[in-house]
């Protein structure tokens, strides 16, 4: 069997991960999930990588859980069904947390259906670009279980607001790329070359000071959980003072004054 996650570096400092089960619309299995975990862990410790693109092979992003069978998470042996089911659940849900915790920003290039767990992967990314053929759906409720799954109940209201999120969560209906753009779920809809758009966005990020980018991603996610404006500003103050001791600010100022492109160390 070939690689279930294709890995390439399409631009300097940019890593692209492509889910590679195109005949199944990249539906999630334990094997695919485990490969994704491994790649995310490798990226987290790779300072030369400054931005990540997540996409799907073929005509789908990720159609959700493979309904023909997920398989077994590492360590499952069939001796205790409740324990094994929880392990499978956590095998997937911790991937959502890992994408959020990744130091590098993640761009989801949603090239087709993103449903259920696929929707969760898109939500856990920092930026979402969609092709005109993309379709989004919080689909768990359509197979008889709660739509509050894989971080979706936390992420979706924060991205599009509670009112719209409730409607999508409780109906389980599909929304197309244009509606996703209108409600702010995606940042852009691309008619032609989605990956080129994602690579351009990733390269824009990769050209910036890596530490500043990482602190910005960390701070933006943290701000969603900080209870007050005052606490958020105090957090920002400490982040900013820490950042000023880095090598990037003098280089950025020098490059501006010398009218050249800044060159930042990894």
Structural class, by secondary structure, is alpha/beta
Could you report the average pLDDT, rounded to the nearest whole number? 96
The counted number of beta strands is 9
Largest sheet: 6 strands, mixed
**Number of helical runs?**
10
Order of helices and strands: EEHEHEEHEEHHEHEHHHH
Taking all Cα atoms into account, the compactness measure Rg is: 19 Å
- The largest sheet has its strands arranged as 1-2-3-4-6-9
Indicate the proportion of strand residues: 15-25%
Percent of residues in helical segments? 40-55%
- Shape field: globular
How far apart, in Å, are the first and last alpha carbons? 35 Å
Oligomer: single chain
| Low-pLDDT ranges | none
Descriptive report:
It is built from 10 helices and 9 strands. The protein has 266 residues and is of the alpha/beta class. Strands 1-2-3-4-6-9 form a 6-stranded mixed β-sheet, with helices on both faces. The protein has a 3-stranded mixed β-sheet with strand order 5-7-8. The radius of gyration is 19 Å and the shape is globular. The two termini are 35 Å apart. 38% of the residues are buried.
Helices and strands in order, then pairings?
Elements: E1 5-11, E2 14-19, H1 30-44, E3 51-56, H2 81-101, E4 106-110, E5 113-115, H3 117-124, E6 127-131, E7 135-137, H4 152-160, H5 162-171, E8 174-176, H6 177-182, E9 188-190, H7 194-206, H8 210-223, H9 229-244, H10 248-257
Parallel strand pairs: 2-3, 3-4, 4-6, 5-7, 6-9
Antiparallel strand pairs: 1-2, 7-8
């Amino acid at each position: 069997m070939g690689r279930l996650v294709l890995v390439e570096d399409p631009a300097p400092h940019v890593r692209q991960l492509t889910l590679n089960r195109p005949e199944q619309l990249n539906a999630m299995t334990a094997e695919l999930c485990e490969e994704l975990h491994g790649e995310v862990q490798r990226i987290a410790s790779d300072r030369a990588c400054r931005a990540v693109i997540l996409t799907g092979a073929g005509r789908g992003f990720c159609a959700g859980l493979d309904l023909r069978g997920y398989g077994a998470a590492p360590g499952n042996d069939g001796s205790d069904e409740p324990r094994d089911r929880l392990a499978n659940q956590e095998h997937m849900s911790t991937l959502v947390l890992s994408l959020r915790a990744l130091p590098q920003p993640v761009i989801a290039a949603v090239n087709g259906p993103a449903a259920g767990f696929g929707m969760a992967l898109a939500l856990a990314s920092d930026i979402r670009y969609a092709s005109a053929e993309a379709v989004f759906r919080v689909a768990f409720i359509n197979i008889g279980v709660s739509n509050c799954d894989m971080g979706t109940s936390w992420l979706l209201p924060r991205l599009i607001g509670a009112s719209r999120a409730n409607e999508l969560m409780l109906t389980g209906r599909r929304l197309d790329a244009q509606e996703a753009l209108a409600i702010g779920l995606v940042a852009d809809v691309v008619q032609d070359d989605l990956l080129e758009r994602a690579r351009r966005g990733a390269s824009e990020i990769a050209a910036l000071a890596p530490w500043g980018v990482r602190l910005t991603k960390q701070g933006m996610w943290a701000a969603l959980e900080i209870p007050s404006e005052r606490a958020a500003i105090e957090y920002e103050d400490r982040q900013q003072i820490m950042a000023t001791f880095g090598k990037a600010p003098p280089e950025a100022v020098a490059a501006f004054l010398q009218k050249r492109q800044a060159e930042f160390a990894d």
